[in-house]
Amino acid sequence: MTGKIRHYFTGGNTAKGYHHFIESNVDSLSRLWIMKGGPGTGKSTLMKQIGHIWLEKGFDIEWIHCSSDPDSLDGVIIPSLQIGLVDGTAPHILEPSAPGAKEEYVNLGQDWDSRKLQSHVEEVADYNEKIEECYEEAYKTFGEALAIHDEWEEIYIDKIDRKVADQLAENYIKKLVGNVHLHKKADVKHRFLGAVTSQGAVDYIPNLTYELPKRYFIKGRPGTGKSTLLKKLAKKAEQCGLDVEVYHCGFDPENLNMVIVRELGFAIFDSTAPHEYFPEREGDEILDTYEKIIPPGTDEENAEAIQEIRQRYNVKMDEGIACLKKAKYLHDELESIYIESMDFEQVNKIQQSIHAQIEELVGLSE
Q1: Longest dimension (CA), the chain
Q2: Pairing of strands 214-219, 266-270
Q3: Angle of CA points 281, 285, 290, to nearest 5°
Q4: How far is CA 250 from the centre of its chain?
Q5: Strand, helix or coil at 240?
Q6: pTM of full prediction above 0.85
């Protein structure tokens, strides 16, 4: 029987620069291969091949997608085997905690023809410089978009009934966690709900939540307490010894967009644009924070200002995404140089070697 794939991001191109949470997702692994090598050296393909082999053997797999190009992978984890492979090249640098004992570097750069690459040295340097400029411009533009978003939030923050907001959070903590207390240390994994990519906003909410019997769709407006409620809930669940998946906002990593507690069978998430979903089955429920804690008529009173802010915000987001698209185009061009210089037969041998090592580890544990 084929296993299942769970999809998520641990890195993000945010308004505060590149940010990642890879450590919390690999800390509990007993074995980790860290891929090194330039663009186009086969890191993502190798990880996909390993993942599919074990998927077909019936193991559930975690697919960690690249926030710049969600069709590529930053990592693969086989949770039940406590084994993973991750891309360890910039910008997602990962420092090993026990080199050799737990982590092992895999250098795919050993399989390229250096003489071919040397003939492109100026071209490679030029591409890298232009790609870096694209990301710097994207982060600057997203930062400007965040400042505009803050203006949007202020309209509602000034109207919040704090006592009602605090009581709402307390009610949902009691409803979802209740008196549960497990006598163990909570396993807390930090991830991104979605990512601002070269393809626009991408998320995997349906994949992450489809097995859960209860899903809570938080509706509201910017600044209506969605992230604050989720932070309080995540903290309480952790204090109670529950394993928690904490999903940060792919635009502002200091905010939360979703909390999943699989031991209690629920997910609760910000279900507003750009990750807007609606109930579609039994067990789905809407929580509207605007309706609960903001005075009626606030939208109407500020309609003109909100429309103007939304337009400025959308323009900046489109500009930032355009920078990511340009970076992706340049990255693809750079990849083609490395692909022509790679010996992929040797890369296949590395993939086979890692697979054999995993089989040996599985055999030792059985």
Answers
A1: 69
A2: parallel
A3: 140
A4: 7
A5: coil
A6: yes
Give the chain's length.
366
- Report which secondary-structure segment, H or E, holds 190: strand 188-192
Three state DSSP letters for 333-364: HHHHHHHHHECHHHHHHHHHHHHHHHHHHHHH
- What integer pLDDT is reported at residue 156 of this predicted model? 97
pLDDT score recorded for residue 96: 75
The pLDDT score that the predictor gives to residue 366 is 54
Residue 205 has pLDDT above 60, yes or no: yes
In tens, the pLDDT along 111-145 reads: 788 888 889 999 999 999 999 999 999 999 999 99
CB of 39 closer than 8 Å to CB of 205:
no
d(Cα 213, Cα 215) in Å, to the nearest integer?
Answer: 7
Overall average pLDDT of the 317-331 stretch: 97
Tokens of 160: 């919040």
Neighbours of 1 (CB within 10 A): 5
**What's the helix, strand, coil split of the chain in %, to 5?**
45, 25, 30
Sheet harboring 214-219: ordered strands across? Answer: 103-107, 31-36, 83-87, 73-78, 61-65, 5-9, 188-192, 244-248, 256-261, 266-270, 214-219, 284-288
Note whether 360 and 150 are within 8 A (CB): no
C-alpha span between 202 and 198 (Å, rounded): 10
Q: For residue 42, give Cα distances in angstroms to 34, 85, 265, 329, 357.
A: 13, 13, 37, 18, 19
Half-sphere exposure for 21 (CA within 13 Å, toward CB): 25
